From TrEMBL:
Assembly with partners or alone: Homodimer.
SUPFAM superfamilies noted in UniProt: Fe-S cluster assembly (FSCA) domain-like, P-loop containing nucleoside triphosphate hydrolases
PANTHER family named in the record: IRON-SULFUR PROTEIN NUBPL
CDD domains assigned: Mrp_NBP35
The protein, known as: Iron-sulfur cluster carrier protein
Binding site for ATP: G130, K131, G132, G133, V134, G135, K136, S137
PROSITE patterns recorded: MRP
Length: 367
């Protein structure tokens, strides 16, 4: 038996709210999504105090919906649209699961005149790709480690909310950042200061976020994390050209974007779209990197080009953009990422390809 949206609304209409009426008649339910037994929605309160008063209401909704036949999962996030002065957090509560950090992430953005610098951070570099799975996150973690080993003060913000992988790649799985309710203390791994939206959310939570909520969350990750003094903050973006890219470039002074692509034509076509988007957002594209470039057989040393080779360099030349370097296809690179110690933390030819990329960025004043 599947649960319908109407049935969910009917149940929510039974739940009284402070000040009179019920969740539905008081118009507090937003972004309701009912799909394959999963119910997700946002309770939007007028302000932080009302959001706190709605905590028992959220719990009641969680309890009642979970008891309905056909419901397998219920995710509710209670938010308030405006922060009290002084930048205190705006989202008040979430339902179920392990204890979240005391600062809730995900809110409406604070009005801002234009892109702003992040205090203490000299440069922000966005790492993007047109297509998923081309190795953008792998490149970001290894580049961050390579830059740190060169003595740069490096931060990494994992903004890939739909598939945050940096905690795993950097060996931080299971660790939670702490917060005093105002500011978040980031984590540290392999010489890099790390923060991931994935560390602040329960699995699947972000899917209920709309554009403005994402923008607010990103603003918090930039301005309410104790990044300290950094030479460069790398931002691992989700693939494609969506809300996160838009929000980042609208809210933060991004020095430039690095585009990662594999050499295949399809990846390159998508990479071109990503470049177009950064152009429209007036964010300079610093160059292209080719990942999974060559494959060197570990047994016989034969060099093969599984996805073609040189396609990204040719594309960079055609677009009159710098070609920043190439990273080989290498099983150890993948295994190192899965094990939580990026290959760039060690030595050897693959680590060297990241060193070269880091040196290139430092020499060009980009990191
Ligand atoms: N050069 C490489 N050699 C071997 N494996 C690689 C290489 N680059 C990435 N991988 C592997 O490919 C998979 C996808 O990489 P990754 O998660 O970095 O991609 P992504 O572009 O960030 O994807 P998404 O944005 O969809 O999460 C991972 O398992 C990673 O270990």
């Amino acid at each position: 038996m599947t649960i319908s949206r109407e049935r969910v609304l009917q149940e929510l209409a039974q739940i009284a709210v402070p000040g009179g009426g019920n969740l539905v008649s008081a118009d507090l339910v937003r972004a309701l999504n009912v799909e394959s037994g999963a119910v997700r929605f946002v309770i939007e309160a007028a302000d932080a105090a009302s959001a706190r008063a709605l905590v028992p209401v959220e719990a009641e909704a969680q309890r009642r919906l979970s008891a309905l036949p056909g419901v397998e999962k219920v995710q509710i996030v209670t938010t308030a649209p405006t922060a009290p002065r002084g930048g205190a957090p705006q989202v008040a509560a979430r339902s179920g699961g392990e204890a979240p950090p005391s600062l809730k992430i995900g809110r409406h953005p604070t009005p801002q005149a234009g892109p702003a610098p992040v205090s203490g951070v000299a440069r922000i570099l966005a790492v993007g790709s047109g297509k998923g799975g081309v190795g953008k996150s792998t490149l970001t973690s290894n580049l961050a480690v390579a830059l740190a080993r060169k003595g740069r003060r490096v931060g990494l913000l994992d903004a890939d909310i739909y598939g945050p992988s940096q905690p795993r790649m950097l060996g931080l799985t299971g660790q939670r950042p702490t917060s005093d309710g105002q500011m978040i203390e980031p984590l540290h791994a392999h010489g890099v200061t790390v923060m991931s939206l994935g560390l602040m959310m329960k699995e699947g939570e972000a899917v209920v976020w709309r554009g403005p909520m994402l923008m607010g969350a990103l603003q918090q990750m930039l301005n309410q994390v104790k990044w300290g003094e950094l030479d460069v903050l790398l931002v691992d973006l989700p693939p494609g050209t969506g809300d996160v890219q838009l929000s980042l470039c609208q809210k933060a002074q991004v020095s430039g974007a690095i585009i990662v692509s594999t050499p295949q034509d399809v990846a390159l076509i998508d990479a071109r779209r990503a470049i177009d988007m950064f152009d429209k957002l007036k964010t300079p594209v610093l160059g292209l990197v080719e990942n999974m470039s060559t494959y060197i057989c570990p047994n016989c040393g034969h060099e093969a080009h599984l996805f073609g080779h040189g396609g990204v360099a040719a594309e960079a030349a055609a677009l009159d953009l710098p070609f920043l370097g190439e990273i080989p296809l290498n099983l150890d690179l993948r295994l190192a990422g899965d094990a939580g110690t990026p290959i760039a933390a060690g030595d050897g030819p693959v680590a060297q390809s990241f060193v070269r990329l880091a040196e290139r960025l430092i020499a060009g004043g980009m990191a």
